[in-house]
Amino acid sequence: MWARIQWIVVLILAVVLLGLLFWNPAPDGKGRRNTLDIAEAPTGGDFVLRSADGPVALRDLRGKVVVLYFGYTWCPDICPTSLGYLSAALEQLTADELARVQPIFISVDPERDTPKRLKEYAAYFHPAIIGLTGTPEELAEVARRYGAAYRKTQEKDSAMGYVIDHSADLYLIDEKGRLAKTLPHGTPPDKIAAALKALLARRGK
I need a labelling partner for 33 at 20 to 30 A (CA). Which of 60, 161, 175, 193 fits? Predict the structure, then answer.
């Protein structure tokens, strides 16, 4: 129990540190989260995007359970919370299970999120997370396939210039590359871990 409390404290401190390192808040301190419409049901599918270490193709990750999350490094709250929950879920896996899982953070802000910045940002949450980006057209296509939605919103009174309103689900892809499950924002770590373990247990099916 004490170890669990220590982990929660460390996670909270990490989120605060990330806010200081990666977020330039608006002078008025205001944030915005608008409802985004998702036009069609997600089907999933292969894609190729870029990491700091080169291109990453989903088809090359066959045999692993892949977890996708769409966001951006300047996100003040939703992304740190979601990635923090994912990190806590990954810590609940055994070493063998973790070796068969590939978490991916896809930035929908290619204007500011370089592959190098994404690698640094993802590493604060968990060393297994890969940060990916691409052209606006590539990102829009991948988001469409997986049912993610995002929208750039100008902020005239903000030092950031703009924010990205975005959906915040986790997309779980099975070992054969098929979209298997979508977990809504706020799903607690133990349920994320349970969903990952369930997919891992389906090996070969």
Answer: 193
| CA proximity to 150, closest of 130, 164, 129 | 164
- Secondary structure of 142-182 as H, E, C letters: HHHHHCCCEEEEECCCCCCCEEEEECCCEEEECCCCCEEEE
Tokens of residue 143, six digits: 């988001």
Domain edges within the chain: 2-21+47-146+156-200
Superfamily of domain 2-21+47-146+156-200: Glutaredoxin (3.40.30.10)
Question: Is 119 a residue whose pLDDT tops 50?
Answer: yes
Q: Which of 66, 101, 86, 103 is nearest to 178 (CA)?
A: 66
Give CA–CA dist 30/51, Å, rounded.
Answer: 32
Whether 129 shows a pLDDT value over 90: the answer reads yes
Query: Looking at the predicted structure, is the pLDDT value of residue 88 above 80?
Result: yes
Q: What pLDDT, on the 0 to 100 scale, is given for residue 191?
A: 98
46-68 burial code (b ≥16 CB/10 A, e <16): ebebbbbeeebebeebeebbbbb
The answer for residues whose C-beta is within 8 angstroms of residue 40's C-beta and 6 or more apart is 144, 147
